[in-house]
């Protein structure tokens, strides 16, 4: 843990900024932890990306993050939303980075600023503005002076803005860490020597920004001093930083997974996620960040490609709309509170781990004052009994028990004592709103300009769509061919072959992989005329013809009669009233094909309900949390529209009368399109013996109790069954008395409340309730 020369210089630097501001917070690190004002800290962080929600949602999201036990919020910085046109900046509305950081600050949380500015993030072009792609001589993410100059220019702009507002901890602000580049170690080998030079340049450029807090580089095992390399993944317990002076940090613990068009809904169980976190802290970790804590929505054209859906829910602890994803949220909250209560021991204690075999281990953190214990069982099928200092502890398969005093188990990752909330969609409850919306329509104007082949740009080649523009998914490629009478093809039966139209998501560039930025969007070609005459085939390649390019637009008048359905390239418009109340609003797109949707002029993203998720892969049985997770495990939604509902933030619909406009590409029928709200429908409580069971309908009264039993209950939320034994008192009556008509209630899972049970001794008893909101 010795200080290197540079490290010493770094501390001096922080010291000098200390003199400038009396509020300065000193952030540094040793091999054990990030230190804040000299104290080693346990940092529990969560990713919330500001453009994936709205300014109006931020305070509530961050408040819930704090209540969920986080002390840090992390975000990327999205270059292409801030500099959509070179040197023209946008920091307004949902792009107001400074306001977002100040919202974090006002809740008293720390912030981690991952500037990138390459961010991946399933974001359009990985966060790179498309104009960058078109700069002469540029090569992205490598030692290329054109690129490095632009990257430095943007990074400096962000750092200067943040400094001006005094938001780095060294200035008294909330930002304790910053990141340069992103997961470059995953792709560096394909850039050869230039990749290494670029990585080192990134580090030096970052250091030269003088921000007074440490920089991190995630997934970069050769991160140069003093950059801290950090881990991203489903599990990071096996991770070791690349030098002993760096703490063990996990910048992306994937709470779930993103969704693809045509793909299934991934779910990561609360038990497995809690297990991965507890393992990380059992094995010496001190900083961990949930990716994502709130996933949110890919509004407009921000979804990366190919095939990332508009919803970026991620099965995160806060759902797409900002509601609690229970039991994940509550189960992790309890874990965070336990871990934070052990902060001093975890950051100062001597760590001793005893391997008991069969993947079972006991870890003791000991300081002179206290000892804290983790009992880990990484065996995916066999439960264990750990005997420790004369007592027996039951540690289920694939779980970790935490004993802050090495005596009393206060938490086990597999024992969920939090309610499950089943969210439901309710139809628009607005007053006087008839069930069906009235639609007007107009066709995409394909006649005059388009059919005459007039474009904005001409080139004698097939262009990458990024070359033209990044303001629309749609681009007309137009050319004309004159076939003279004496042309051999003239007498042939002519057809056109277009290579590349299979990629229907033109306009949704990739965001990940080596040289991902060079993969074309649009029609890559070749485009050929094929002339057939009997056995004779003549091919005329049109790829290097003169092509005219035009971004789509429309001019036709709106009409109300004879609503066309199932027609390509059709615009639809309707007005609607905002649903009453404050519950999140979604629009149900059932019946539509594929296209884009706007509410009061703001794009709510791409829709594609006609793309069904594949038929198989879903299991009827409850997901087994045991065993290594990946995103193909615990999937749902087989055979259903990949994404049927689309988030309409409340702030998009402030008016009495609001407008919805759809551009339908494939053909659809808007008759069934309607607005709904999202709220808990049923909630299922679960509490192991001696714990309190808390039930809440998040602001609504509990209206009925469908099931209740204290014993060895079977089944899952929605299909509970009594076990072989239970307590003597009538549990339904007890629950009704405690909960009906209330917005929340609490009851203890004990023999005292539910009456002595006829369970054999040794039975694990739990109180299980299903309530209706
Ligand atoms: C970015 O480049 C512009 C010129 O294109 C220059 O005026 C500006 O000062 C640069 N900004 C920074 C922070 O280097
Ligand atoms: C898990 O436990 C079972 C039963 O004791 C044992 O057969 C198996 O090898 C263990 N698995 C691992 C990965 O240790
Ligand atoms: C921790 O380890 C150090 C070095 O081995 C030892 O001197 C110290 O006594 C230990 N402290 C405790 C509480 O075990
Ligand atoms: C802990 O106890 C050991 C042995 O008694 C002692 O040498 C050491 O200084 C103590 N450490 C602290 C931090 O009090
Ligand atoms: C739709 O049009 C009909 C006939 O003009 C009208 O009665 C109805 O109120 C309209 N519905 C809405 C939602 O505007
Ligand atoms: C021209 O080609 C089309 C499509 O292959 C075929 O259906 C048609 O019969 C052909 N006509 C002649 C005259 O060969
Ligand atoms: C058609 O496109 C695919 C994928 O872009 C490419 O691999 C293939 O070589 C192309 N075919 C021709 C004939 O160029
Ligand atoms: C416990 O009591 C319940 C209800 O009285 C009964 O159905 C069940 O069979 C009993 N179980 C045992 C193990 O005695
Ligand atoms: C560091 C780490 O845990 N990486 C894992 C991330 O997730 C992928 C996909 O499951 C694994 O292959 C990596 O090992």
Please characterize this protein's 3D structure.
With 773 residues, this protein is of the alpha+beta class. It folds into 5 domains: 3-324, Alpha-Beta Barrel (TIM Barrel), CATH 3.20.20; 326-335 and 343-414; 422-443 and 554-608 and 643-678, Jelly Rolls; 448-551, no CATH class; 689-772, Rhamnose-binding lectin domain (RBL) (Jelly Rolls, Sandwich). Helices cover 17% and strands 28% of the residues. Strands 4-5-6-7-8-9-10-12 form an 8-stranded parallel barrel, surrounded by 4 helices. Strands 20, 29, 33, 35, 37 and 39 form a 6-stranded antiparallel β-sheet that branches. Helix 8 (270-282) runs parallel beside helix 9. It is globular, with a radius of gyration of 29 Å. The two termini are 55 Å apart. One 2-acetamido-2-deoxy-beta-D-glucopyranose is lined by residues 358-359, 379, 381-382. It is found in: Secreted, Extracellular space, Apoplast. This is Beta-galactosidase.
């Amino acid at each position: 843990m010795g200080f290197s020369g540079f490290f010493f210089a770094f501390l001096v630097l922080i010291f000098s900024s200390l003199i400038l501001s009396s509020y300065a917070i000193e952030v540094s690190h040793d091999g054990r932890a990030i230190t804040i004002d000299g104290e080693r800290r346990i940092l529990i962080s969560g990713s919330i990306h500001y453009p994936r929600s709205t300014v109006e949602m931020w305070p509530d999201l961050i408040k819930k993050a704090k209540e969920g036990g986080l002390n840090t919020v992390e975000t990327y910085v999205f270059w292409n939303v801030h500099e959509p046109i070179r040197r023209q900046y946008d920091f307004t509305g949902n792009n107001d980075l400074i306001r977002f950081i100040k919202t974090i600050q006002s809740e008293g949380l720390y912030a981690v600023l991952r500037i990138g500015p390459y961010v991946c993030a399933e974001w359009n072009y990985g966060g790179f503005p498309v104009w960058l792609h078109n700069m002469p001589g540029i090569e992205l993410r490598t030692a290329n002076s054109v690129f490095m100059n632009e990257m430095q220019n943007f990074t400096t702009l962000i750092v200067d803005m943040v400094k001006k507002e005094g938001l780095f901890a060294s200035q008294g602000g909330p930002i304790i860490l910053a990141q340069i580049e992103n997961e470059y170690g995953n792709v560096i080998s394909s850039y050869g020597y230039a990749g290494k030079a670029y990585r080192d340049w990134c580090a030096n450029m970052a250091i030269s920004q003088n921000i007074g807090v440490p920089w991190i580089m995630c997934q970069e095992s050769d991160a140069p001093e003093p950059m801290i390399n950090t881990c991203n993944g489903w599990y990071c317990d096996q991770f070791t930083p690349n030098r002993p002076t760096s703490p063990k940090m996990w910048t992306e613990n994937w709470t779930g997974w993103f969704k693809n068009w045509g793909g299934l809904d991934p779910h990561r169980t609360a038990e497995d996620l809690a297990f991965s976190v507890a393992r990380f802290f059992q094995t010496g970790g001190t900083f961990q960040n949930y990716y994502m804590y709130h996933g949110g929505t890919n509004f407009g054209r921000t979804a990366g490609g190919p095939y990332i859906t508009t919803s970026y829910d991620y099965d995160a602890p806060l759902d797409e709309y900002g509601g609690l994803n229970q039991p994940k949220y509550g189960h992790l909250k309890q874990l965070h509170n336990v871990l934070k209560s052990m902060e001093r021991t975890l950051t100062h204690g001597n760590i001793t781990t005893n391997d008991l075999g069969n993947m079972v281990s006991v870890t003791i953190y000991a300081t002179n004052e206290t000892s804290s214990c983790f009992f880990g069982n990484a065996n995916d099928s066999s439960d264990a009994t750990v005997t420790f200092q004369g007592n027996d502890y039951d540690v289920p398969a694939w779980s970790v028990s935490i004993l802050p005093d090495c005596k009393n188990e206060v938490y086990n990752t597999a024992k969920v004592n939090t309610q499950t909330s089943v969210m439901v969609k309710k139809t628009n409850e607005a007053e006087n709103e008839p069930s069906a919306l009235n639609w007007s329509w107009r066709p995409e104007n394909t006649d005059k300009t388009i059919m005459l082949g007039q474009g904005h740009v001409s080139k004698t080649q097939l262009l990458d769509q990024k070359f033209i523009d990044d303001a629309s998914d749609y681009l007309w490629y137009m050319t004309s061919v004159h076939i003279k009478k004496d042309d051999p093809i003239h007498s042939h039966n002519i057809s056109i072959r277009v290579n590349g139209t299979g990629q229907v998501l033109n306009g949704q560039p990739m965001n990940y992989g080596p040289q991902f930025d060079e993969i074309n969007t649009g029609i890559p070609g070749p485009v050929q005329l094929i002339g057939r005459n009997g056995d004779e085939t003549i091919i005329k390649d049109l790829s290097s013809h003169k092509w005219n390019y035009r971004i789509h637009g429309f001019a036709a008048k709106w009409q109300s009669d004879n609503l066309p359905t199932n027609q390509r390239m059709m615009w639809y418009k309707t007005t609607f009233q905002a649903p009453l109340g404050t519950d999140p609003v979604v629009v149900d797109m059932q019946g539509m094909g594929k296209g884009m949707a706007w509410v009061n002029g703001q794009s709510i993203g791409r829709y594609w309900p006609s793309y069904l998720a594949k038929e198989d892969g879903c299991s009827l049985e409850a997901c087994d949390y045991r065993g290594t997770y990946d995103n193909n495990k615990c999937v749902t939604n087989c055979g259903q529209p990949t994404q049927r509902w689309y988030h309409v933030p409340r702030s998009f619909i402030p008016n009495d009368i609001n407008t919805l406009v759809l551009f339908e590409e494939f053909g659809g029928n808007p008759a069934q399109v309607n607005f709904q709200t999202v709220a808990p429908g049923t909630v299922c409580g679960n509490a192991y013996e001696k714990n309190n069971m808390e039930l809440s309908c998040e602001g609504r009264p509990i209206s009925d109790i469908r099931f209740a039993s204290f014993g060895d209950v079977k089944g899952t939320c929605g299909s509970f069954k009594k076990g072989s034994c239970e307590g003597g008192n009538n549990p339904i009556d007890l629950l009704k008395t405690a909960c009906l008509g209330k917005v929340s209630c609490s009851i203890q899972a004990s023999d005292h409340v539910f009456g002595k049970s006829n369970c054999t001794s040794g039975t694990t008893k739990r109180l299980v309730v299903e309530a209706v909101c």
